[in-house]
Design brief:
3-stranded antiparallel β-sheet; globular; alpha/beta; single chain; Rossmann fold
Length: 234
């Protein structure tokens, strides 16, 4: 018997009500991924890429369909269970990094570890956060607040924060969208290197052809349908 995939998405569907017919933004999307695999999703503005990503991360609820991460279906959980699941199983990297301005780089990375569901002790969490900040090249700036960091440095903090709880699923929404080309390339390299080192599932949505070209597996979301366009698609 084969081992179940770490991420199983089955018939995911999302519609929004309108005065006329419902607006369908994600239409019967199904795919599977295992740890160590990465996927980039492209599509025109308004195609539903971010909506799909947020459903995978349980920030939005699908109209119907199912999601399983390590054989767990988060859609059956109550609000507190869902928050714990999200904190343990999902790491987010956004275009707007969403760092807390009053907190240092180290404190921002540690935020996910402060939830009651965190499996790490405070000492373990701090050690891992420091190691990740060193890995992203910010060991000398751990006490700096976001306003004292460049855009690329803020995004590096966000990458470390996404990884600090050892979540198997990393979701990135336009992670290089606000960066100049040189900085974007450096952040993309780092994100993919850490994905491989940490053996995560990495799903990224982007408009950037340069970023998309770095991924071995690619899909297009058009009219709500996800169509795999690379040779490695299943």
């Amino acid at each position: 018997m084969s081992t179940p995939a770490n991420l199983v998405v089955q018939d995911l569907y999302k519609e929004y009500p309108t005065p006329n017919d419902p607006l369908v933004v994600v239409n019967e999307v199904s795919f599977e991924m295992n740890r160590g695999e990465s996927l980039v999703i492209m599509g025109p503005s308004g195609s539903g890429k971010s909506t799909l990503l947020y459903m995978l991360g349980t920030l939005e609820t699908p109209t119907r369909g199912s999601i399983e991460v390590n054989s767990r279906n988060p859609l059956t959980l109550n609000e507190s269970g869902l928050a714990a699941f999200r904190n343990e199983q999902v790491g987010f990297i956004f275009q707007e990094h969403h760092l807390l301005p009053q907190c240092s780089a180290l404190e921002n990375v540690l935020i996910p570890t402060m939830a009651p569901s965190s499996a790490q002790t405070p000492a373990e969490a701090k050690q891992r956060a420091l190691r990740l900040l060193d890995r992203v090249g910010l060991s000398g700036r751990i006490e700096h607040r976001p306003a004292e960091l460049s855009g690329g440095e803020r995004q590096r903090v966000a990458i470390a924060r996404a990884l600090v709880n050892k979540a198997p699923l990393i979701l990135a929404d336009e992670p290089t969208g606000n960066l100049d080309r040189h900085t974007a390339d450096a952040v993309a390299d780092l994100m993919l290197e850490l994905h491989r080192e940490e053996n995560t599932i990495l799903i990224t949505v982007t408009h950037s052809l340069e970023l998309a070209a770095r991924f071995p597996r690619r899909a297009e979301l058009t009219d709500g349908k996800l169509v795999f366009t690379s040779n490695q698609a299943t």
